[in-house]
From TrEMBL:
Protein's UniProt name: 3-oxoacyl-[acyl-carrier-protein] reductase
Organism: uncultured Desulfobacterium sp
Keyword Membrane on entry: no
SMART domains (alphabetical): PKS_KR (SM00822)
Family the UniProt entry places it in: Belongs to the short-chain dehydrogenases/reductases (SDR) family.
Amino acid sequence: MGKLDGKVAVITGAGRGIGKAAAQLFSKEGAAVVVNDTDETVAAKSVEDIEDAGGKTIYCVADIVNGQDAQRLMDTAFEKFGGLNILVNCAGITRDAPIHKMTDLQWDMAVDVNLKGTFNCIRAAAKYMRKDGHNGRIINISSISGVKGAATQANYASAKGGIISLTKVVAHEWERFGVTCNCIAYGPVDTRLTRAREEQNEEVAGEKLGVPLKTRREMMERYDGRIMTTEDAAYPILFFARDESWCINGNCLQAALGGFS
């Protein structure tokens, strides 16, 4: 028996990184998973990997910054699998720059994807989750930057801090339906957003992803050469998704070794 048998989960940003690891873990625990990403190639590969392991899954290409796309994503879960029990808002992006050099585009993209996208998905999920006795689970992905702040991340830290507040609001509003809403503020996780940009060639909207090589080295030194893998990061999400977590609501778990100094 899996810990999520019979559950239907939507996971945004599940073509890569933490979202993909969570999708694979949820599937192993018995959930039917809707993989969301804006890139059809990586979404399809994520689904292929889950299916090869015997899981039940589909993908839905949707841009959650668009409210209609977010609604279509939730509708797809219901139409294909007959319900929506778990929503994991994992899609995110960084656009780092010091405040005096940050452009409107950099601000808007980070806030739109991280915060507005999360809001859009929760609002869209209301159609299926705001029902008496639903007992669903919403897990939002924040960051230690949203708790403590971080230089060059005014946009990202503001959005991730906003997610913490949004989590608490949803917890208040949806508790009467048995729906819990919690978030996880991660420290560095080894993804394309934290790898050295000089060592990778991925771009989104004309900007290379990652951090400067110097920043990457300083990060590794601070964490004694060990930061979380995406697989590590998936387990706290699973904890909040389980029925046994029913009594935990509106919380922000800080998953950041060395992040408390």
